[in-house]
Amino acid sequence: MITEAKLTVAGLRARAVNVKLERPVQTSSGEIPTAPLVLMDLETREGTTGRAYVFSYTPLSLEPLRHLIENLGTTLEGDALAPLEIERKLQGMFRLLGPQGLTGIAASGIDMAAWDALARAHDLPLVELLGGEKKRVSAYGSLRTMHRESVVEETRELAGLGFDAYKVKIGHGDVRADLEAIFALRGVIGDDAKLAVDYNQSLSVTGALERVRVLDDEGLYWIEEPTRADNFAGHARIANEARTPICIGENWWGPHDVQKSLEVGACDYGMPDAMKIGGVTGWLRAAALAEPVGLPLTSHIFPEISAHLLAASPTAHRLEYLDLAAPILKEPVRIEDGHVLVPERPGIGLEWDEEAVSGFLVR
User: Which helix or strand (DSSP H or E) is residue 277 part of?
Assistant: First the structure.
């Protein structure tokens, strides 16, 4: 083990891949047939390399994001591999541009890669570097499909992994269509398993209240992002009137958004996204805000790093299992009896399957 790991950034390699998904992700706003990812290798002069990836949602933003990350890596060359100092430098560069969108994603990705390198240099899994311990993290199966027939098929596949909780995306029609998807899923998982639904911001506050009054009778685990993500006051109004818990957070751009949500009572569950919350550094700050008020935290995609982060979070609840990067990883996330296993490997545990990467590489 390296007891004193003083590392210096040597460079950052960023590669764009567009990974074909066997089952596209369907949402109320459209279908995502591929996973456009930027893979990062943050190299140090001492020979340690940190890895992370980010998700651009659409191929249209893939190359601009890759180029931005690469440019930012150039500005860090020769700097100490100190994640907090790197975060401070990048935030200073973005002060006038703003910390949302591609700038926020790029900074979060670099932060994750920096923490990965630091943990690898100390020969520790990330969770142990953060002061936690390797453990099994409770998870739920997050469905990619929305329509009745495909919901049934996918749920049966996920059931084989031992989940006792699931989530389905709704909002592609009226409330009758929502109930159809809920009933179809209930027909497979039974009444004992937990069932959450996700509207992906598709409703107005008034429309959400109308639907919540119907869904309140379905015994749901939570209703996720019923209205626009940055409408914290609107979510607070919905949360105040609904009997069903409200979950938001995958579009929190940093800990300041967490604080704004808490101030108005916008949710009952918080769902930070490692890529938007600010990487490891932003997640730790968000978890510190959640702890005093007892806000349960779940995660949004990125199961590899989310397992480490939840294992180190005081109010950790459940991990969202929706794995987009598995096709390009040597060792994808392992599920055992509905739990994600935090890997024994140093760092986050990411190792690229270079043969698979070459097949999806955007040149």
Answer: helix 274-277
User: Do residues 139 and 117 share a domain?
Assistant: no
Q: Are 132 and 120 in the same domain?
A: no
Mean pLDDT of 156-164: 95
CA angle 148, 152, 153 (to 5 degrees): 120
Residue that is last in its domain, among 101, 124, 147: 124
Shared domain for 120 and 172, answered yes or no, is no
| Exposure letters 6-35 (e unless 16+ CB within 10 A, then b) | ebebbbbebbbbebeeeebbbbbeeebebb
Looking at the structure, do residues 92 and 201 belong to the same domain, yes or no?
no
pLDDT tens digits along 238-257: 999 999 999 999 999 999 99
Do 178 and 115 lie in one domain? The reply is: no
Read off the pTM. 0.96
Catalytic residue numbers read 169, 300
At 254, the amino acid letter reads: G
Amino acid identity of 353? D
